[in-house]
Each structure stands twice: as C-alpha cells, then as structure tokens.
C-alpha cells in the first residue's frame, strides 16, 4: 500500500512552567526537534493566554504558508479541559479557571483547534504510535508534580461522565495521617507519591538530622531538598532516602494494582519526571504491582512501560487533530 504524503499539524503542550511546540505528521513524526519556550505569567502568577497565543503566532503563520492544507492545532494543557467547548475549566498550575482558550485560539488564528488535558493526549500518542499500539485496555499514568492519568478501555478513550476519569492520584490512601492535597481532600495517594511529596519527606529527614547525605547534596541549594536529590541519595545508600522511596513504591504498588484488578488492563504506561533517570525505580514498582495483583493472568500479562516519546503529550496533541479530522482512527 502506498503511503500518503505526510500532512503536518501544529502540536502544542502547555505545562506548568514550559511549553513545547512541534509540527507533527499523521505518522507521529516531527518535522524538526520540538521547541521549548517558557509559559508567560503575570505578576500574580497567572498564565497569560494572550501572551501564549503571541508565542504561537509565528508557528501558525509558518504552517499556513508552508503546508498547502493545515488541518489544525492540537493543544495539550496540564489540567481539566472541556473537550466539547475547548474551555480550560481548571488548570491549577496556570491559575486558570474557565478560560475559553479554545475560542481565543480560534478568534486569533481562524484555525480549528483541539484542546484537551495532557494525560489524554499522551495516552492517544501511546495507543496510536507508541508502546500500546494494538492494545485495547491501557492506562496512562503521569508521576510528576502530580499523579494522575487517563484510560483506554475496550479500544476507546474513556472520559467518564464529566471527562474526569483517571484521577487515580486523588483516591484516598489515608485521610488520618495524610497531608492536605491540592484537590481539597486529605491523604490522597498524590500527596504521598508525587514529586513534591518525595522532596518534602527528604526535607524532613534533613531537618530531623536523619540524612547526612541529603544534607550534603542540598548544601549548595540552601538545604532545599529536591525529588532528584532523594533519588541520588538513595542510589548512594542513604538509609532515610531508601525508606522514603520504598514507601513510595509500596503505595504506587497498591494504587496501580487496584486499578488493574478493577479494569483488567494489559498495559500501564508511566510518564512524568519523578522516575526519569532511575530505571531501578520502574522495576521496583513493576515488582510491587505484581505482588499485589489478584489473578495469575494479570501477573503474567500486565506490562508496565515507560513513555514512548520524549514528550508523549506533545505527540498526542497532533494525534488528536488527525482523529478529529478523520485522517486517523483509533
Ligand atoms: Zn487529592
């Protein structure tokens, strides 16, 4: 079968501090390496939608000029997005509530655009072009500043009643001992396992004099412990850090195995920054999840994979455009 000539769309992934931009075709290939820009914020710490559109304008103009037909813009955003209206309903990191970003993009450029939450976009990239290609029951989970994901069940994206399915990180682990979470509840899994939780547990170890190694590693940063430092200290044999990571792995094991028991998944794809640079961490999570699974079939068949692309959400933003225009099908 003859391959169709590549058609490019503009893909954008707006994160909590940075945004990635690329032209991507219907085979999931980038025209050139993705560009990374800083998200513009005002003095109150609110991301400025008009300034974001200013940054996108040269790319849109280039696409209009260079590509005979330009099917649209895929907009991956790090929060809850109403895919029907294109409104950013709640994006904590950008301090956005009910920002009509889809409509603003249309008014500025006159080009069809498809905003959706980044975890949904990432899952689409994995299912269409990544490690989950051909599978029918898959979860994408991001473990970074937060912990949450999206579901692909029986060969379809599963949005739930309000488009909020996949918020696994806000299931409660222990409301009696847990910290207050950004969602308003106490003791969510996210408040134990996400990056900031790991860093603050490391911080506590330094303050209580339990970790000389972490103290040493954070000395040049005014004793501010980061997630990366905890992993570093763990690899150096620091007992406090080993215990922190072991607990994170245990709780992830409980959380992910519950999801697999409930949904009988074939694959979980893990994205996010927390585990990057620590392949042992993924192996430990994999073992723990298997320990807790109910059926022999799940223990045998479940695969826990890592993100297929440097930024799956960015690639998925392009997939979303092609799915909307009918050029690709799930
Ligand atoms: Zn929560």
Could you characterize the architecture of this molecule?
- The protein is α/β, with parallel strands linked by helices.
- The chain folds into two domains: 8-117 and 311-325, ATPase, nucleotide binding domain (Nucleotidyltransferase, domain 5, 2-Layer Sandwich), CATH 3.30.420; 131-306, Nucleotidyltransferase, domain 5 (2-Layer Sandwich).
- It is 39% helix and 20% strand.
- It has eleven helices and 13 strands.
- The chain has helices spanning 49-66, 101-109, 118-129, 190-193, 195-207, 212-217, 227-235, 239-263, 279-292, 296-301, 312-325; strands spanning 8-14, 18-25, 35-38, 73-77, 80-82, 87-91, 96-99, 113-117, 138-143, 147-153, 156-158, 267-271, 303-306.
- The protein has a five-stranded mixed beta sheet with strand order 3-2-1-4-8, with helices on both faces. Strands 11-10-9-12-13 form a five-stranded mixed beta sheet, with helices on one face.
- The radius of gyration is 20 Å and the shape is globular.
- The two termini are 19 Å apart.
- 44% of the residues are buried.
- The structure holds zinc ion.
- Residues 170, 181, 183, 185, 188, 190 line the site of zinc ion.
